[in-house]
Structures are given as C-alpha cells and as structure tokens.
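Reading group handout, session on sequence-to-structure problems. Before we discuss, look at one worked example. The prompt was deliberately terse, the way you'd type it at a terminal:

> structure Prolyl 4-hydroxylase subunit alpha-1

The input record follows.
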Amino acid sequence: MAFNKIWCTVALGLLLPFSYAHTDFFTSIGHMTDLINTEKDLVVSLKDYIKAEESKLEQIKKWAEKLDQLTDTATKDPEGFLGHPVNAFKLMKRLNTEWGELESLVLKDMSDGFISNMTIQRQFFPNDEDQTGAAKALLRLQDTYNLDTDTLSRGNLPDPEHQRANGNMKYFEYIMAKEKEANKSSTDSEDQMEKETEVKKKDYLPERRKYEMLCRGEGLKMTPRRQKRLFCRYYDGNRNPRYILGPVKQEDEWDKPRIVRFLDIISDEEIETVKELAKPRLSRATVHDPETGKLTTAHYRVSKSAWLSGYESPVVSRINTRIQDLTGLDVSTAEELQVANYGVGGQYEPHFDFARKDEPDAFKELGTGNRIATWLFYMSDVSAGGATVFPEVGASVWPKKGTAVFWYNLFPSGEGDYSTRHAACPVLVGNKWVSNKWLHERGQEFRRPCTLSELE
Ligand code: OGA
Ligand code: FE2
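And the output record:
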C-alpha cells in the first residue's frame, strides 16, 4: 500500500545521501526560477545574434549597391571606363582582394556566440521526464480543484479568497440547515432522515474524495458546538522563563485530534535564512520502494526537501530551542529540521507521520522510538491550494506565513492516533515552503506535555 512506504522513506531519506544527476524541475519552484533566468539570458544572446546578422547583411547590401552602380557605368562604355588608369587599378583591386573579402564576410558564421551559449545552457534544460511530470501536475490540479479544461487553458484560475469563502459558505449553510432542523415540526422527520443519510454518505466517501474536497475548502466537519470550544490565547510554554514576559499567540485549529497554531512564531529573516541554507541542498523527496528496496520518486509525494542541523546555524538552533520550549518536548531526540518546497502541483497524499504496529523497524536506526509529535512551520503564504488536510476528521489547515501548527501523533500510551492521518494538498497557484520537526518518544518520559493537555 502506498502510504505504508512513506515513513520508511522519510527515515531512509535521513540516512542515505541524495545524488541525482538531474534535478526534477517541476517539483519545486525554487529551481524553476533559475530556468526563467536561463531563458532570459538565451533571449539576450539570440538578440545579439540577430543584430550581428543584420549588420552583416547591411554591409553586404551596401557592397552590392555600390557594385551595382559601378558595373552599370562600366558596362555602358567598358573601353572608356578602363581608359582611366584609376578605374583599371580599382578593377584589379576589387577582383584580386575585395571580392575575396566579401566572400569571407558572406561565409562568416555570426551564430557562434548564440550556439555556444545554447550548448552550455542545454545541459540544464528540463527533459522528457520533467515535461511529463509537469503535464501530470496539471491533470492532478484539474482533478483536485474541479477545474474544467477551458478554465485551465485560459489561465482563469479560481480566486483563492473566493475558494476559501466557498468553504465558509458551506459552513454557514450547515449552520442554517441545523437551525431550520431544530425549528421544524415532527412532520418533517422524513426530510430530516434524508438529510442525515446525506451527511452519513459523506463519511463513507473514499479517502481520495474527502482529501480533494478538503483541499477545495469543502466538507469541513466542524460543528458550531465544537467550534465554540476552540479558543485563542497567549501562551507562555507552561511558565517557561523565556516566554513569561513575552508569551506567544496560540489558536486552537481543531479539537480531536488537537491541532494548535502558533502565530508570528518565525520571523521573515529567520525564514529567509532557513530557505537560503536549504536551497542548494533541495532534492526531490523520495520514497522507499519495498519491491526493489531502492529509493524512488513517487507521484504521491511531489516536493523537494533538505535537512538542516542545529549545529550549522544559530538560526536553526534557535528554532529548535523554540520548539522545545513551546511543546515541552525534548528536541535532542528529534529529527533534524526538514525544509520542503512544493512547486505548482506539488503535494503529499494522505499519510501518517508515525510508524504503525506492522512497521516496528521504522525508526530503529534512530534509536529514539516513534514520532510522538509533528511541528510544522508555514514559511510562505500560498496564493491558492496547498492546505494541510486531515481526511479522517474533515479538517483543513491553511498555510499562513510565519505560523506553525503542532499536533501529537501518539496517545500518551504510545499508541498511534489514526485520526492524525493528513496530507499536503497540491499547490494550485504560487509556491509553498514549509519546515517541520518530528519529535520522538525518547526523552519525553518524565516530561508533562504542556501544550495539548488543556482541552482534554
Ligand atoms: C509532511 C507533511 C504537510 C504540509 O511533510 O509530512 O505532512 O502541509 N507536510 O506540507
Ligand atoms: Fe506528514
């Protein structure tokens, strides 16, 4: 099963060095911006070539016109013409040297500069695989966001605000339907039953459909009663000395599983540093193919990622400490900070971050137990698409630059929480940057997880 492979991928991704000759451009916008610059350079070089070719033709034209006049006069009265010694000399000179020079000019290849530029740049061009990848990404977007071919080909993409408003609309419709239901007399019970089966039907939708609906901002399963119990607050990390005077903004995104969002939790400067550190190391995220035992790329995970250690930059180290302070979890047993960049069509289909019972060796090499919790920074806004969705429970979390979300993958017993199954929706317009920290079980034995206990 596809998603069974995911964790081992991520684990193996840690241990095996990436070495790819080709860069898979379509998976990340970061690399595609280089291509735009390459193309711009090539246009400049092509224009230079056109100029050189035009000036060559201009020279040839002038010569032809001059000779046209000259031969006209000469042929009218050849003897009279040659009677002039200078004309005789000039004829000798033209035929002996000047026509030869003109021949060289006509033969001269002005395209050298352009062609050599082209040859150099061509090594970095996308290949057939990239082109197919980009085409598949378009199909994926069309499916997920219900776009008709016409809309897509004209570039009339849905307005993201409008898209989200759609989700709100659904929510209001739900509230209004509920209120109506409450006001109705018992004679309407048939109607009511119909409605209930409608709602039930949604529960049995295949995961793929739920995932796509959530990505479009539809099918959110929050009820008003539950929503009333979602709050926002200033949080000091359970009286952590570093946050008592300057607590951080925390919002409940979801109740079960509990997902909280921290606001203004990573600065624009920190984001820039993290991106700059990661950029040269970004490579296509791979998954472990159980049949061949090799790392391969998969359509269900289309992004580029890199790992950053706290030792290489004070910024990364500071970020790690922040996660430790605000989650109350030891980060020394956590994995390194993973930075991921999703280009248009980039996605990560539904998966668990933790290893299931049938995968006991998942994080064996790490020796730090299972992934107890996930911390996910949003390092960019996304113009449209790119939500993080939880199809089991009907939750969508929208990327917002500078914020982070956090949830537990395991119950206190160590059992996996299957309701945390989640996905990164395909990016429709824009470019999505995230970074995440997977915290592990070891080191947490004597800690009281502070962030998520309040709602229980
Ligand atoms: C992941 C993941 C979600 C996202 O990398 O494991 O689930 O929104 N990412 O990028
Ligand atoms: Fe994940």
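Points for discussion. First: DSSP finds 13 helices and 18 strands in the chain. Second: The two ends are 33 Å apart (CA to CA).
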